[in-house]
């Protein structure tokens, strides 16, 4: 028996809190024709990346969302100066990537 | 060893000093305040090399102790009554985080109405929180139990609450053998490593949210969730049924004084009725039993030193052959019964020839429990037991009769 059998404990690691993507009811969908980075074809703006509380947006043009961990909070859509991110209800997508992989 | 004439609060402070407590955090409340005043003076004078952290509330006092103990320090606090109630959230946290703290509770009634005097409602109200709860008969036991408390806590990774009656012990001076520091050091080595060493180079989140179900951790190891951690905590408390008497015996070897275990007994062997109590009432009941023995009445005493875990097997064993147990609770689960009476009935349930358990409540809000009243209650209980009464309504010892109110 080690300490983790006696007290709750975690260490920094990808997915330590589980695949939180299956909490999501709506997912961010980036419209590349409106995204500042995508339209300029260079890694600029990245305001969505800076604001994501779960660090599940990867920098890029356009930035990419890791749907295995995105909880669908919508902050990225809210802060996007170009209004290029829409929160689309999960029901319209059918399959949740995180749920498909099972809860860790 | 030195004999000092000291109060229960001073005995508690001596226990903390001899245990080489490293962090003290507390907020003043009657009747506990002199514990921390005494420690504060020693820290100020350099006699006690500890960090004394003044806080703005009992909630913060326990929070500081949680932080200190998590980092590996031997931490101490003390409180009473509404201070304990205010601390309650963190009392549960300290237990669930399996921190080996020792806290003294100078037992006092809970408001409303406001009353600073003794009963045991405060600590009894948190008996389910997962702490070992030990109740002291006299000031010697206060000192002894604080030191023993650390050894129990650090062995089991559970916190220990050392309870003693406010004013009756906290402010009453009596002779106490204060052992030499060397004897205590031999009994209680420095605190072992904490369950998890706090290391910035290998960071851990201690006490994070856990989910309902077991799941794999970052290393792929399947880990229990809340339910498994709680089950392990319960099992650690049950281990205290062995640890408490073993540590008491080790203390007796270290200091040459009789050890104290889960329960204390007095003249139970041929007793027809047993007075069952916790705290200073055990001392009082012992004197009353002796008086009644002079009248030829077969009365004995069972003192419950360890209320959590409840020593069910020990009480079944000690009460064998007794007709009835009169439980003297200084607390009440309102709408039902006294806490010790309830636990005792559960412990005896299904035992062949189990004694009847009569519940009595006394001493609430500092009401004096006189030897005369205790003797009268014991005589009445003995008469009922001999008449074969299995159940009785809750008795209130010392309650003013309604007609007196006019």
Overall description:
In chain A, 19% of the residues lie in helices and 15% in strands. Chain A is built from 4 helices and 5 strands, in the order E-E-H-H-E-E-H-E-H. Chain A has helices at 36-40, 47-51, 75-79, 97-101, and strands at 9-10, 26-30, 57-58, 64-65, 85-89. In chain A, strands 2-5 form a two-stranded antiparallel ribbon. A two-stranded antiparallel ribbon of chain A has the order 3-4. In chain A, a hairpin with a 5-residue loop joins strand 3 and strand 4 (64-65). The two termini of chain A are 22 Å apart. The mean pLDDT of chain A is 89. Chain B has 13 helices and 18 strands. Chain B has helices spanning 8-18, 33-45, 58-70, 81-86, 88-96, 121-124, 139-156, 181-187, 226-255, 280-294, 312-318, 339-348, 371-386, and strands spanning 2-6, 23-26, 51-54, 75-79, 102-107, 132-135, 160-165, 174-178, 205-206, 215-216, 222-223, 263-266, 273-277, 299-304, 306-308, 324-329, 356-361, 395-396. Helix content of chain B is 39%, strand content 19%. The longest helix of chain B has 30 residues, at 226-255. The interface between A and B is medium-sized, with 19 and 29 residues.
Strand and helix layout:
The complex is a heterodimer of chains A (104) and B (406).
Chain A: E1 9-10, E2 26-30, H1 36-40, H2 47-51, E3 57-58, E4 64-65, H3 75-79, E5 85-89, H4 97-101
Antiparallel strand pairs in A: 2-5, 3-4
Chain B: E1 2-6, H1 8-18, E2 23-26, H2 33-45, E3 51-54, H3 58-70, E4 75-79, H4 81-86, H5 88-96, E5 102-107, H6 121-124, E6 132-135, H7 139-156, E7 160-165, E8 174-178, H8 181-187, E9 205-206, E10 215-216, E11 222-223, H9 226-255, E12 263-266, E13 273-277, H10 280-294, E14 299-304, E15 306-308, H11 312-318, E16 324-329, H12 339-348, E17 356-361, H13 371-386, E18 395-396
Parallel strand pairs in B: 2-3, 2-4, 4-5, 5-7, 6-7, 13-14, 13-16, 16-17, 17-18
Antiparallel strand pairs in B: 1-8, 6-15, 10-11, 12-14
Helix pairs in contact in B: 1-2, 1-7, 3-5, 7-9, 8-9, 10-13, 11-12
